[in-house]
């Protein structure tokens, strides 16, 4: 019984042997922490806009992707084999991002595409941090925030109410053509005497 206990304790000590190395422990903490932090910035922007996938979702996606990559590297997996791990992560995130996309009854109205794209970006940030490319992940985070925040102002300027046609909102709302025909302005309707009102 005593020998079995010693064997079990030796196995546990070997499993956690990496913690004894301060350099390895610091590397793991920095990579996982940066993955969660950078994706948290993207998630905070989504949370502030009231989107369905917010701060915690983006942080968990990035942390999971970083863990997949980091654990594979620690196990001694080569870069060529690591590409298969990355392919699996990307495919899995595609299913998660598809859950954020909402298709309404109108063929012109689809919501959640940007949120799905940010979830995909969060996974990429986590994979980059897991491989030790924190600088690249930081640059990608800055570009992502610029796209989400700064380009929103440009979109609003391009979509001024004066530039939109009157028929486009009806088409986007899914109103049939017959309903649009009934919604003619009052000056086009004929009076009871048969004359057009001006």
Tell me the layout of helices and strands:
Layout: H1 2-15, H2 22-48, H3 55-74, H4 79-98, E1 102-103, E2 110-111, H5 113-130, H6 134-158, H7 167-172, H8 177-182
Antiparallel strand pairs: 1-2
Helix pairs in contact: 2-3, 2-5, 2-6, 3-4, 3-5, 4-5, 5-6
Mean of residue pLDDT?
Answer: 77
Radius of gyration: 27 Å
Number of DSSP helical runs: 8
The first-to-last residue Cα distance is 103 Å
- State the low-pLDDT regions, or none: 165-173, 188-192
Number of domains: 1
Describe the biggest sheet?
A: 2 strands, antiparallel
Strand content: under 5%
**What class would the helix/strand composition place it in?**
mainly alpha
**Total E-strand runs:** 2
Percent in helix: 55-70%
Order of helices and strands: HHHHEEHHHH
User: What is the spatial order of strands in the main beta sheet?
Assistant: 1-2
Shape: elongated
Report on this model:
- The chain is mainly α and 198 residues long.
- The chain has one domain (15-165).
- It has eight helices and two strands.
- A two-stranded antiparallel ribbon has the order 1-2.
- Helix 3 runs antiparallel to helix 4 and helix 3 (55-74) runs parallel beside helix 5 (113-130).
- The longest helix is centred in the N-terminal third of the chain and has 27 residues, at 22-48.
- The radius of gyration is 27 Å and the shape is elongated.
- It starts with a helix and ends in a 16-residue tail after the last helix.
Short précis:
This protein starts with a helix and ends in a 16-residue tail after the last helix. The chain contains 8 helices and 2 strands, in the order ααααββαααα. Strands 1-2 form a two-stranded antiparallel ribbon.
């Amino acid at each position: 019984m005593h020998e079995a206990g010693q064997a079990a304790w030796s196995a546990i000590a070997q499993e956690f042997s990496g913690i004894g190395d301060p350099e390895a422990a610091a590397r793991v903490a920095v990579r996982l922490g940066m993955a969660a932090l950078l994706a948290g910035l993207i998630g905070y922007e989504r949370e502030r806009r009231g989107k369905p996938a917010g701060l915690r979702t983006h942080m968990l996606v990035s942390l999971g992707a970083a863990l997949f990559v980091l654990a594979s590297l620690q196990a001694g997996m080569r870069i060529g084999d690591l590409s298969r791990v990355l392919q699996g992560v990307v495919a899995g995130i595609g299913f998660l991002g598809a859950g954020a996309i909402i298709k309404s009854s109108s063929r012109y109205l689809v919501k959640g595409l940007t949120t799905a794209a940010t979830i995909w970006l969060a996974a990429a940030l986590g994979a980059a941090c897991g491989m030790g490319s924190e600088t690249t992940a930081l640059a990608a985070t800055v570009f992502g925030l610029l796209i989400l925040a700064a380009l929103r102002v440009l979109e609003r300027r391009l979509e001024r109410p004066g530039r939109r046609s009157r028929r486009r909102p009806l088409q986007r709302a899914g109103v049939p053509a017959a309903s649009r025909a009934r919604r003619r302005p009052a000056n086009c309707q004929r009076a009871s005497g048969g004359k057009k009102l001006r």
